[in-house]
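Researcher: Dear colleague, please comment on this protein.
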Amino acid sequence: MNSRVGDAYSRRAAEYIELFGWVGAAHPSDRQLVSTWARGIDGGAIDAGCGPGHWTDFLTEHGLDARGVDLVPEFIERARREYPSVPFAVGDLNTLDCETGTIGGILSWYSLIHHEPGTIGVPLAEFHRALSPGGTLLIGFFEGAEVEQFDHAVAPAYRWPVEDLSAELQAVGFDVVESHVRKTVGQRPQAAVIARRGTDPMNVERTPAAR
């Protein structure tokens, strides 16, 4: 899945950057949510699936020691060029380059929308591993009445009910703190969940990403 989706975004990187590669393109409530969440982070942050780097830079503007990671080299090249003082790296969200329990916050803003229901637990468990006790994850996604695939412009993606994605987070050890849903006429319903690193369940140690 990673290679297929990464290649699809590489082919359309310039188009994506033009349409979405700046924070001003986001809904005002999204900017408010991310900024409020960022102010509560204690420690470093990772923008997991950072795209062309605009949200990573946004986090640094809010005082965080943030870095971005993305599967798509074209996005990372643009991010490094546009935000030279912010660290970026090409990488896989299933295996973050950090020590266990050392990250204060992880932003996963629509970066897991292409993960199938059977595999989304792998990056979620990796996020849990990376976060320090009390660290938080903010995840943005497309909301729906049931888990279902839809035809995204770049690659097939999934809608999730808040309850179902919250259950996936809880299954790998997160405590769900709050959730938000926004429905705008003419747009797909959007949602976000903030989750805190909680006690590891028995199955986390058996997931491929946990170590």
In short: Residues 2-206 form a domain with the Rossmann fold fold (CATH 3.40.50.150). The chain has one domain: 2-206. Strands lie at 45-48, 66-70, 88-90, 103-109, 131-143, 148-150, 157-160, 174-182, 190-197.
